Amino acid sequence: MLREIIATKSERIMNKPANLSASTHEKQLDRLAEIAIRVGLNLARGQELVMTTPLDALPLARLISDHAYKAGASLVTTLITDDALTLSRFRHAPDESFDKASGWLFEGMASAFRSGAARLAVVGDDPSLLSAQDPGKVGRANRARSKAYLPALELITDFAINWTIVAAATPAWAKAVFPSDTPEVALAKLWDAILKASRVNGADPVAGWAEHNRALHVRKAMLNDKRYSTLHFRGPGTDLRVGLSDGHDWNGGSAKAQNGIVCNANIPTEEVFTTPHAMRCDGTVRSTKPLSHMGTLIEGIEVRFAEGRVAEARATKGQEVLTQMMDTDEGARRLGEVALVPHSSPISQSGLLFQNTLFDENAASHIALGQAYSKCIIGGGDMSEDELKRRGANRSLIHVDWMIGSAEIDVDGIDANGNAEPIMRKGEWAVAVK
Ligand code: ZN
Ligand code: ZN
To answer: What CATH number matches the domain at 2-197, 3.40.50.720, 3.10.310.10, 3.40.1830.10, 3.40.50.2000?
Structure first.
């Protein structure tokens, strides 16, 4: 699962895709905005909303705001980010800048969440925005921001409030995904892929989402019935045993936040996921897709785990950024999530590398280094940090998903007595959902 991030974006203004009439494109954006408010957030009448959006995604953000107020939002506060402004800091700021963050802003956001506001992030990041910048500075800036944002982020990861993330195609992102197309064609193709993946193309997208949620709920119930103690992933370069946390709970599709509102935290979502035990992961694993992390593509990741901790890690590209990320804190070398996604997922079938976790994690089974979700432990929402730790829930400033699933991966579930049974074969569910 992708927990929310503060987006950064470019100075170019988003245009409509050239191959669509203005009204068709507007209609599609309006449906995505409606899904964001009605399905993603299920925004309650009278609720406040804090929204972040890249400058390039303003047309979508405006429609989201319309739907929020129509749903009865008492106040929508929108924070706009911009790639050029982000780069301005990396190019010109004095060295001490990179240990600073806008703590006052994040405190305000946490305070809004505590008083009942919902949270929506529109993402459309340029995947290589910071790739030419000093990885040391990028690492420090991220660390400072993560620290300052922690009080707000904890309310998100503890699922205290309804929150969601949706995507908007932006010129810089489109160029990264479709480098050989003209800017107009690339943008149109990316919008098309986002709308399909976000399931807003059918005749009745809200009903389509209800059916999709039902299928995910059946799948998570099947896994919860089994209560496996370990998942065993096998495939080229991978022989990994992921121990699950004690009292783990599988999640997938819509879920009830602690404020009682049922929401879909990620649009799109195709995964069922749970909390691994931070001390019980052993073996080797190879990434099956590049990981886009803080403006750098990390490729060919190979990691060896011993007793839950990354003992060795290599990457054919972006090794320095990978190391920086894992050096964030002690928990950054341990797992906080394991998720299953069939290879036949629509996002996987699109064959695209979106270079954006919201999409790529829903194309393949994945693991995440860093913070665990307390909602993936039975009763976790009411537990103290110590109790969660005893169950095996990891704690970290980071939560970074990377893809380990493909059509070549088998997954077994191993019960407490050591008996194994197939969960996935060649990347597909071994048992069909009725
Ligand atoms: Zn996930
Ligand atoms: Zn995740």
So the answer is: 3.40.1830.10
